[in-house]
Specification:
This protein is of the alpha+beta class and 416 residues long. The protein has a domain of 232 residues: FAD/NAD(P)-binding domain. It contains eleven helices and 22 strands. The strands form three sheets. Strands 4, 6, 7, 8, 14, 15, 16, 17, 18, 19 and 20 form an eleven-stranded mixed beta sheet that branches. Strands 1, 2, 10, 11, 12, 13, 21 and 22 form an eight-stranded mixed beta sheet that branches. A hairpin with a 2-residue loop joins strand 16 and strand 17. The radius of gyration is 21 Å and the shape is globular. The model has no long low-confidence stretch (mean pLDDT 96). InterPro entries: FAD-dep_OxRdtase, FAD/NAD-bd_sf.
Amino acid sequence: MATDTIVLGAGIVGISVALHLQKAGRSVLLVDKRGPGEETSYGNAGLIQREGVYPYGFPHDFGALIRYAMNNTIDAHYHWNAIPKLAPFLWSYWMHSRASQHEAIARKYATLIEHCVSEHDALAAEAGATGLLRRKGWMKVFRTAAQQDERLAEAARWNRDYGLNYKALDIDALKAEEPHLDHGSLIGGLHWTDPVTVIDPLGLSKAYVALFEQLGGKLALGDASTLVQQGDAWSVTLADGTKAQARDAVVALGPWADVLTGKLGYKLPLAVKRGYHMHYKAQGNAVLNHPVLDTERGYFLAPMQQGIRLTTGAEFADRDAAPTPVQLARAEPIARTLFPLGERIDPEPWLGRRPCTPDMMPIIGPAPKHKGLWFSFGHAHHGLTLAAVTGRMIAEMVTGQKVFVDPTPFAPARFG
């Protein structure tokens, strides 16, 4: 089977890459071991984070470090046996998260974030999926004045520096927006108004795939680890035993990218943050109008088509270690006091894996050692947010067009 481009990995990033390449006139084969959007792209909080100019950093305040060392929080958890392997990544991550470094990263990162909503809007409109998008933004709710003051001051800086819009909510305004929260435990909130939310992330992935196929794109089951370079072409073996060949190959394998790139001679500093979710029915006539972060407790509630989705923070563990949803067990009883959650809907907690780099920025661009090989992974918490932007960037690079966002800060070559 011959095609112009093979895209390896059918998460939301790989789907968006394949779709943009197909729109640009390339014939594209999208390859994965599973169905499109069924891994990490399924389990996110459904946020297209227009406000997310500062990627999630490693805390530097002493109190947070002490809490994390105790290993009993909702927002972070670690497996002791994974720490030796993760230590170099965590050290580099902590260094890049220093205030001056984080600020410099944000200035580069903002060039991606500023297009996240408009690029998804364009694809969703073409795919007939705008009904999955909600334009209500999302909220942080606060239990303490110290946290509220810190986050509102931060929002004011981001508004000044990047034009991000927000509303400060006193308790009465919060009651009006979210009448079914337990307001006795809260003092107010912060409403980010620019972001768009997705009520069915898997549904959005499937809509983009349907558009890709309508434009002539092809899907296939296959093992990305079989990718080899043969002369000026790339070849991958599909599940039915046939071989697909293409001039260009794009690695969009998310948390599994290093398995393939390592075989090809690249030592990229990738790590994985794992996370869990569970869906719940709402009790009675209770309604959650916005996605809500319980700031001090470190869990997230999001209204989805499946129900209310409770998501946890980061678990630092081996990528393929057995699930240990202790953060979900810690979060659920607290979440039940904040919002009237009913019975669980899912039979088991869902586990996802976020592919991360120590400088908190994705890897987007040409592989330094191989002609016709392209990397598109490492988006951490912002895979959904940046998928459409990344897809357009890769398509423009592969087809030799002027790239609408300067790709230099995100190039694989920055890691040497």
